[in-house]
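Dear support,

I submitted the protein below through the web form. The confirmation email said the job was done, but the results page showed an empty box. After a refresh the structure appeared. I'm attaching both so you can tell me whether what I see now is the final result or a partial one.
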Amino acid sequence: MQEEGEPISEMGIICRNIKKLLRRPGSAEGAISHIRREANQAAHIMAHSKTNWEMREVWLDRAPVFLLDQLRLDDVAIDLI
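What the results page shows now:
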């Protein structure tokens, strides 16, 4: 997320689009920061989930049920780091 210039990978394009969204007028304020793996197991679970990614899902107001317990644990871990 910190790299500048044109992305050359699919992940780079995703990162570029996220940064564009954060800069848009009227968008919610936000910041991008590095969170150590110990405090971000929810991301690990999402990356390795067995969810059928061929069918797109969007969670706007609530996290997916299968992540709720881990998100609570991650929140506690962030406070401890």
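Response: this is the final, complete result; the empty box was a page-load delay. The chain has a mean pLDDT of 77.
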